[in-house]
Design brief:
There is one protein chain. It is built from 21 helices and two strands. The chain is mostly helical. A hairpin with a 5-residue loop joins strand 1 and strand 2.
Length: 376
């Protein structure tokens, strides 16, 4: 069974495909130029003036007053900073609406000088820095948001997108983990969130944590064939083959057409050299469902190898190689070619396997045994 499709079509997602793409970041922070015309400066100035005049402030007893009403200066002094911060924040939002990002940054920075503890100001400021490609400033500013409001999720989402565009996938994954944990606390019966967390932990190779997430799903949905399949695949990563086999069997009992479980169980039987007839039935069923799946073709080819049917094995492994370029397929091809007394092709296949995935001890040993043979 080919390594890159070890979990068949619906297996845990690889880390680079888990994180959101650059296009998502552009969409979220509004990098695309807006089609609307810029607001005339005179109108912006009028808006600014009206905001100054009409910004409500709270009186000592809680009643709302307006700044255009004459009030004593001493009474107003402690109230002006928050009102002024709101004014600049509102102007920043207005500038953002019209794509005037540099102007909005200036306003949000002014707002922050009057209200240093308002996380929303820093959230807007960080998004605007990202919009202009000032990623380091965006990261620093968004990092301040979670300190001011640990419950905020938006800042972590923006940070995850930024780290993704910078190909810092581990840091992006950390931000996604914060988001998903927050969602799971808010909605402890949301199966989808546990699934995302499981996928995330898989991408980080935190297999025990991933297993716990999928087991939580089974406590809520005990007949979920897909989750049983994913759990079985994860138990293979932790070298617990028997648990994996049991889960694949249960998955097939619930859904006899689950091709991933059919393939995985059939491959395990073939690999062990036991129950080869049952393995053949399972793999043929998987291929009938998805005839062009390179992993499934590889599994069937390996079964024929185990049966000593090398010509038949070669036919299916060559089909697998056409459908999927994978180091395990090349390793299997090398074994078949050697059995067919084609040592030169075996050597090339093993070399191809190592080019895709270096430091495979078993493949290196096979090549070493053929080191006296020159490559044609």
């Amino acid at each position: 069974m080919a390594e890159n499709e070890n979990y068949a079509k619906s297996g845990p997602t690889k880390e680079k495909s888990f994180v959101s793409p650059y296009a998502t970041l552009r969409s979220v922070i509004g990098l695309k130029k807006r089609l609307s015309k810029k607001m005339p400066f005179r109108i912006l100035t009028l808006c600014f003036g009206f905001i100054l005049v009409l910004t409500p402030v709270q009186g000592v007893r809680g009643e709302t007053v307006s700044q255009d009403i004459e009030v004593q200066t001493d009474f107003l002094k402690p109230l002006v900073p928050s009102a002024t911060a709101l004014t600049h924040y509102t102007m920043g939002v207005v500038y953002d609406m019209y794509g005037l990002t540099e102007n909005s940054i200036d306003e949000f920075k002014k707002a922050a000088t009057f209200d240093k503890d308002n996380y929303l100001i820093y959230l807007k400021l960080g998004a605007d820095y990202a919009r202009l490609g000032m990623m380091e400033k965006a990261i620093d500013t968004l990092g301040a948001v979670s300190k001011l409001n640990p419950k905020d999720v938006q800042s972590h989402y923006l940070l995850a997108l930024i780290y993704s565009t910078q190909k810092e996938f581990d840091r992006a994954a950390q931000e996604y983990e914060v988001i998903l944990k927050s969602f799971s606390k808010a909605d402890p019966e949301n199966i989808e969130v546990y699934g995302y967390l499981g996928q995330l932990y898989y991408s980080q190779k935190k297999y025990p944590e991933a297993i716990r997430q999928f087991e939580k799903i089974l406590t809520l949905d005990s007949k979920n064939a897909e989750v049983m399949y994913l759990l079985g695949s994860l138990y293979l990563e932790t070298k617990d083959k028997q648990k994996a086999i049991d889960l694949f069997k249960k998955s097939i009992e619930i859904d006899p057409e689950h091709d991933g479980s059919l393939n995985s169980l059939g491959y395990l039987y073939a690999e062990d050299g036991n129950r080869l007839d049952e393995a053949s039935s399972l793999l043929e069923r998987a291929i009938k469902i998805d005839p062009d799946n390179g992993a499934y073709l590889d599994s069937l080819g390996w079964l024929y190898y185990k049966k000593g049917m090398y010509d038949e094995a070669l036919k299916y492994l060559q089909k697998a190689d056409t459908a999927l370029k994978d180091p395990v397929i090349y390793d299997h091809l090398g074994d078949v070619y050697l059995k067919l007394n084609q040592a030169d092709k075996a050597k090339k296949s093993w070399q191809s396997s190592l080019e895709m995935q270096p430091n495979q001890d078993q493949v290196l040993k096979k090549l070493d045994s053929l080191s006296h043979l020159p490559t044609p």
